[in-house]
Design goal:
Layout lengths: L2 E5 L4 H12 L3 E6 L19 E5 L5 H11 L3 E4 L6 H6 L1 H22 L5 H6 L1 E7 L23 H20 L3 E6 L1 E3 L8 H10 L4 E4 L5 E6 H14 L5 E4 L4 E3 H15 L11 E4 L14 H6 L8 H14 L1 H10 L11
Parallel strand pairs: 1-2, 1-4, 2-3, 4-5, 5-6, 6-10, 7-9, 8-12
Antiparallel strand pairs: 9-11
The chain binds nicotinamide-adenine-dinucleotide.
Length: about 350
């Protein structure tokens, strides 16, 4: 049994992680500011569990983070809280710099000041996992894959803010010997992803009979991992990862956006057919995202080799299960469209 402080545990990946940790019997403190993307209903299944607690706090509030560490006494911090949507970072970069860079620095600083006063056993076993992204590497051409040694060349404000926080984690590991490990995950998909992201946005647009917007000609490539596999890999890194290391997390599932969107349309044709025409008839090519990275592909040889990790969700099964989840959970996403995000285009940088 371990005590884990999770930041951002009401978001898409964080809530999947929290549910897994609580289910496995760990004590969990979820620290989340409940931004537009932080939804208490994402952790409703575990909210009443005796090994789960929640603190509404902003990671930029260093005193609140310090108090949480003092009160909870974690064996690990898994830091996921962030502004996470590239398009929003183009419309309004400052929130990204504030939360992702300064917020991460506040978490690192609080841990750095709290840890030395802890009993030797806890101090030696303690780990801080910083959850970064493959987007810090920038874009690939048609060939090759990012390794952990690829240069960090972010292109969007989101990616730049994550790169800054990723390097900050490195700086705290080198300067204060903080027991930090950095995970760079590829694109996640699965249940409870906020409707602004490609897969839920495609499903929801289709269900409303609205144009399914695909940027440019849909030729950009992403490397997709199911959120349960990502969480599984994060926990493997927490258990066995080498201090000070970086681990790429990917599942070897590269898809062009247009092919992914067409797959979703095919699934919807089977499960929720339109009265007239195929779902793919709704596909509309729209103006590209400024600075749109062409291709991401993750080389996960370090994770697979050193930590003996493999994904377990087959891409076709994961996508079908995700589509089914959105079909069955209209109650989860429909209110978000009314109150938080109307499904419209973001990221043209107006
Ligand atoms: P998300 O947007 O769904 O959730 C982010 C969570 O962080 C929300 O619960 C939000 O309330 C919380 N948060 C935001 N600002 C905060 C602040 N200042 N203080 C406290 N809490 C705050 O994001 P996600 O998709 O679950 O991503 C989680 C992490 O994983 C992020 O760090 C992201 O950069 C990283 N990541 C995501 C992906 C992906 O495909 N989704 C891929 C690689 C890495």
């Amino acid at each position: 049994m371990t005590c884990v402080l999770v930041t951002g545990g009401c978001g898409f990946i964080g809530s999947t992680l929290v549910r897994r940790l609580v289910g496995d019997g760990h004590d969990v403190l979820n620290v989340d500011a409940l931004t537009y993307a932080g939804l208490p209903q994402n952790v409703a299944d575990v909210a009443g569990a005796s090994n789960y607690s929640f603190l509404e706090a902003d990671i930029r509030d260093g005193a609140a983070v310090a108090q949480a560490l003092e009160a909870f006494g974690p064996d690990a911090v898994m830091h996921l809280a962030a502004e996470s949507h590239v398009d929003r970072s183009i419309d309004d970069p400052m929130d990204f710099l504030s939360t992702n860079v300064l917020g991460t620095a506040a978490v690192l600083r609080a841990v750095e000041q709290w840890l030395p006063a802890q009993p030797v056993g806890r101090r030696d076993a303690f780990r801080l996992l910083h959850i970064s992204t493959d987007e810090v590497y920038g874009a690939l051409g048609a060939d090759g894959a990012f390794t952990e040694d690829s240069p960090v060349e972010p292109n969007s404000p989101y990616a730049a803010s994550k790169a800054a926080s990723d390097l900050m984690a490195r700086a705290w590991a080198r300067t204060w010997k903080l027991p930090v490990i950095v995970c760079r995950s590829s694109n996640n998909y699965g249940p409870r992803q906020f409707p602004e992201k490609l897969i839920p946005r495609t499903i929801i647009s289709a269900l409303h009979g609205r144009p399914i917007e695909v940027y440019a000609r849909g030729e950009n490539v992403r490397d997709w991992i199911h959120v349960e596999d990502n969480v599984d890999a994060l926990l493997r890194v927490l258990e066995r990862g080498a201090l000070g290391s970086v681990y790429n997390i990917g599942a070897g599932n590269e898809r062009r956006n247009i092919d992914l969107v067409r797959d979703i349309c095919g699934l919807l044709d089977e499960r929720a057919p339109r009265e007239t025409g195929a779902t793919a008839d709704l596909i509309a090519f729209v103006e590209d995202r400024p600075g749109h990275d062409f291709r991401y592909a993750i080389d996960n040889a370090r994770l697979a080799g050193e930590l003996d990790w493999q994904p377990s969700v087959a891409p076709a099964d994961g996508l079908r299960q995700t589509v089914d989840w959105y079909l069955a959970n209209r109650d989860w996403w429909a209110p978000l469209l009314d109150d938080v995000y109307d499904g419209g285009r973001l990221g043209l940088g107006g």
